[in-house]
């Protein structure tokens, strides 16, 4: 298959999958109302979703190596569609948690499958751009889900957004199965050698930074609409627009910082690490700004600027990782890095919700600011610490 056809198919797959997955984040106000949830209980829905993703990420990556991305991506999107229907049909809070876990687990096919498709089918000189285009499908899908769920809820009912997402996922899964061919390459199923990676000090620091920054990323996505509704005093529909704008800004941040990573001079590790440091510090400052800003217009503007940094750092995060590990370790390092990001989403959303209930949203946002500052300390350690001797970085 031609490169443009492969990238287009993978982008559409990623878009459909992200709409199904991120619809859960957009529906948090409706979960709260339907099941009479506290802020902490809402956070546990996000935790259940990301826990499913974290638990199944590595096993599904191994299955992708064994059976190929054609099968795993098709089955994954079918499962995401079914999971969306289960979330919409959940009759109790416990069933909602189980459905969210199942939905998150099938999203674990996304990163290993789409990355394998890109790197197996795209020439080296165009791989980074192709990955960047594919990653825009994540934020585009999240933004689309926000508009879909909140928009349809105002006309019909919130569950209708999940049904539309499921129908779109089923259609894309069928088209992907029929059209996609890929390289057909398969490998033995294997798991990363984390013991070797953990001996790499700057990689450990970067993973620790990922936990802190991932906490801010997923919590912001999960609570933006609720915050706009409860604290700013705007409608849920307006909150959906703010979340969509936040995601659009995050897409721009990924593209701009990716370009800067290539264009700026200097040692790659220090150059890219410095960009990640700026993103971490800016995220901390903007979390403080969101905590104190008042009014619909100022709050919306603050979230848009925040999105550029807190949602736009992931590309630079992985680019920095490529300066710390060898090409042979990059697959395992990526899996570990993604687990670090997701781990932040296991504790931060419930803590954010608890603080919002106990002392108000201001302290919740300040908690995320503190985590971003801690993350920036780890990024500084990445910049100052050389990789182990004998490691030829994947990105020079």
Automatic annotation (TrEMBL):
The chain crosses the membrane at residues 36-60, 72-91, 97-115, 136-156, 162-180, 205-228, 272-292, 298-318, 330-351, 363-384. Coiled coil: none annotated. One of its GO terms (molecular function) is transmembrane transporter activity. It comes from the Archaea. The keyword Transmembrane applies. The keyword Membrane applies. Residues 1-387 form the Major facilitator superfamily (MFS) profile domain. Keywords: Membrane, Transmembrane, Transmembrane helix. This is Predicted arabinose efflux permease, MFS family.
